[in-house]
Amino acid sequence: MQTERLLENNSIYIAGKVIEECKFSHEVYGEGFYLFKIASERLSDNEDILPITISERLIDKEILKLGTKVEVIGQLRSYNNYGSKKNKLVLTIFAREINLIEEDTEQNPNQIFLNGFICKPPVYRKTPFGREISDILVAVNRAYNKSDYIPCIAWGRNARYLSNLSVGENIKLWGRMQSRKYQKKTGDEVEERTAYEVSISKIEVASDRKEKEKMMGNNSF
Question: How far apart are CA 86 and CA 82, in angstroms?
Answer without folding.
Answer: 7
